[in-house]
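Hi V.,

Quick status before I head out on leave. The structure for the redesign project is tokenized and pasted below; the design run finished overnight.
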């Protein structure tokens, strides 16, 4: 049965009603996806608009790959037509649309949450809870603009860099997380070795306590939400036995709460996430450098996957590159020769996902100039990567919309589970009504499932992770851009937030001149003493770009609507949780880079103080 589920791992997503084990990934969603060829039985498919064939539990374990009669075959490789279509959409998309299309078609984005909870109104941030759990939220009438704050004084913000690889080591108790004895190196059980039961003094007792079971399930759920593709030999191999042990319970809960389908096989687990809709601010990045993917990078990735889902286990690199060149659809941007940097980005991500192994460093740096190289292809993982190849969608925009469709409760819970904060003003009317009616019970069930804390405010709800593990972005952070972003947002809040008693909307406009002035003050005050990167101090434009990008991805600022003149940014209400408690009479900025407010008249002092320049 596990082999059968594994073979059909990429069969359906975001379509139909899931049964918790092998069904679709969208309770109440539209069937907008297609089976990846070879992932299960079904009729032969021709290129063009595709319809997802059935994927029953009686699928044969070694189902023969389906060859598409209309697909070109190069070096024995037959491309998947749905992924070729996706490659064209990626190449023709704008950068932001390409990111949203990746979230809709691959669903490999991690969750993103705020960390420290707010303390009492006007007081310091509360200490992290020892056992995260849903707490009774404050009254819904409290606004983020004027409510409790999680502000930390600047000298106390230093923090160690987060360890690479995502979640911290969750092994707290030997009884809760038994060691897997597979004969492989620690943390690397080996793909072809079966887990063995521990024996002897360290053996796990058979009568596992309810508390231990609950802790294991929470760890496994958080791991899957942070890393939707977990392998038995990858960087999160320690958590894979927990996912397998509790796969039935996890599948039911993910399906009930979020409409996600969980497929668990002998060597990998795949949580099929749905799309987040337009403007999700989720993107793929180079696993080593953090460089963001461009539309061309996404197109090369989709082209490679189109060939790898049906590739032999051993594949010459030059044969794969030649096949990618031969199947590029044209005319259009994707028909141009592959850029070497884009190829390198795509191959680095495929290696990080373990779809390709045995890649030498030269192949990761420049696949086109690597010389004779034979790749090892994990075809099952290649088939598990796509969750939303196009079928009923007319274009990229239509696929992004369809992949995010769900009934109101599921749609809101997905936002709560994946994004830092859910603001009612951002929701359509049916979802806003659901949040208004289930503002306490809905987030509480999800918070208990994932070990988060609910923070309810007049503008919306946020689920917080005091452990600061269930997020791909850290704020506060250790690097220069993160430190500058935190200082920038707290000062912007102090400058422009509504005063108590004023009508406080969700967003407040921020002039560009104010951003430039505050950032200049911050760089002068903290740059050299805090050891900030000198390239940022020399290039304030780059510092501004990266600081604003981080704040935008965390949902603390957002671009002004298209057509606004002059274009600028809007400060969002959750940003106030990172600022000091509101001052009833805020003073204007006094740094040498600050711009005076033309509408504010400040009486000059009658005479300068002693020692003050005239």
């Amino acid at each position: 049965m596990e082999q059968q589920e594994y073979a059909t791992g990429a069969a359906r997503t975001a379509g139909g009603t899931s049964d918790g084990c092998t069904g679709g990934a969208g309770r109440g969603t539209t069937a907008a996806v297609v089976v990846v060829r070879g992932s299960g039985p079904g009729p032969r498919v021709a290129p063009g608009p595709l319809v997802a064939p059935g994927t029953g539990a009686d699928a044969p374990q070694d189902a023969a790959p389906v060859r598409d009669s209309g697909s070109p075959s190069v070096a024995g490789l037959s491309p998947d037509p749905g992924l070729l279509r996706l490659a064209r959409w990626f190449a023709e998309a704008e950068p932001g649309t390409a990111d949203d299309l990746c979230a809709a078609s691959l669903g490999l984005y991690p969750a993103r949450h705020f960390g420290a909870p707010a303390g009492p109104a006007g007081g310091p941030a509360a200490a992290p809870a020892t056992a995260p759990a849903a707490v009774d939220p404050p009254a819904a009438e409290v606004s983020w603009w004027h409510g409790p704050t999680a502000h930390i004084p600047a000298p106390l913000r230093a923090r160690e860099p987060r360890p690479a690889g995502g979640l911290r080591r969750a092994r707290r108790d030997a009884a809760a997380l038994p060691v897997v004895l597979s004969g492989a190196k620690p943390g690397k059980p080996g793909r072809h070795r079966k887990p063995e039961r521990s024996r002897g003094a360290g053996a796990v007792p058979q009568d596992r306590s309810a508390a231990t079971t609950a802790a294991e399930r929470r760890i496994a759920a958080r791991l899957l939400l942070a890393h939707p593709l977990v392998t038995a030999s990858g960087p999160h191999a320690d958590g894979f036995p927990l996912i397998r042990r509790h796969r039935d319970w996890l599948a039911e809960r993910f399906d009930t709460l979020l409409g996600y389908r969980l497929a668990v096989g002998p060597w990998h687990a795949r949580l099929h996430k749905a799309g987040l809709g337009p403007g999700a601010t989720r993107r793929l990045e180079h696993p080593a450098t953090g460089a963001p993917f461009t539309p061309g990078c996404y197109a090369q990735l989709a082209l490679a996957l189109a060939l790898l889902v049906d590739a032999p286990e051993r594949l010459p690199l030059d044969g794969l590159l030649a096949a990618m060149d031969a199947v590029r659809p044209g005319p259009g941007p994707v028909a141009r020769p592959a850029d070497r940097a884009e190829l390198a980005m795509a191959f680095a991500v495929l290696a990080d996902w373990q779809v390709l192994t045995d890649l030498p460093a030269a192949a990761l740096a420049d696949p086109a100039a690597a010389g004779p190289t034979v790749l090892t292809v994990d075809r099952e993982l290649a088939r598990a990567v796509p969750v939303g190849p196009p079928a009923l969608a007319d274009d990229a925009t239509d696929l992004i919309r369809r992949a995010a469709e769900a009934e109101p409760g599921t749609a809101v819970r997905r936002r709560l589970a994946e994004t830092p904060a859910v603001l009612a003003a951002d929701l359509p009317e049916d979802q806003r009504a659901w949040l208004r009616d289930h503002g306490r019970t809905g987030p509480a069930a999800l918070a208990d499932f994932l070990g988060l804390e609910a923070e309810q405010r007049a503008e919306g709800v946020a689920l917080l992770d005091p452990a600061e593990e269930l997020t791909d972005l850290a704020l506060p952070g250790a690097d220069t851009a993160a430190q500058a972003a935190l200082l920038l947002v707290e000062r912007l809040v102090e400058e422009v937030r509504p005063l108590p008693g004023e009508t406080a909307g969700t967003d407040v406009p921020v002039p560009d001149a104010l951003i430039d002035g505050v950032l200049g003050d911050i760089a002068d005050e903290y740059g050299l003493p805090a050891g900030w990167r000198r390239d940022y101090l020399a290039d304030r434009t780059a510092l501004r770009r990266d600081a604003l990008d981080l704040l935008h991805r965390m949902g603390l600022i957002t671009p002004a609507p298209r057509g606004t003149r002059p274009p600028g940014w809007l400060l969002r209400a959750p940003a106030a949780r990172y600022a000091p408690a509101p001052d009833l009479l805020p003073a204007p900025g006094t740094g040498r880079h600050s711009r005076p407010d033309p509408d504010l008249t400040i009486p000059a002092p009658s005479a300068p103080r002693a020692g003050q320049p005239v």
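Above is the designed sequence. The longest helix spans residues 210-226.

G. will cover questions while I'm gone.

Best,
W.
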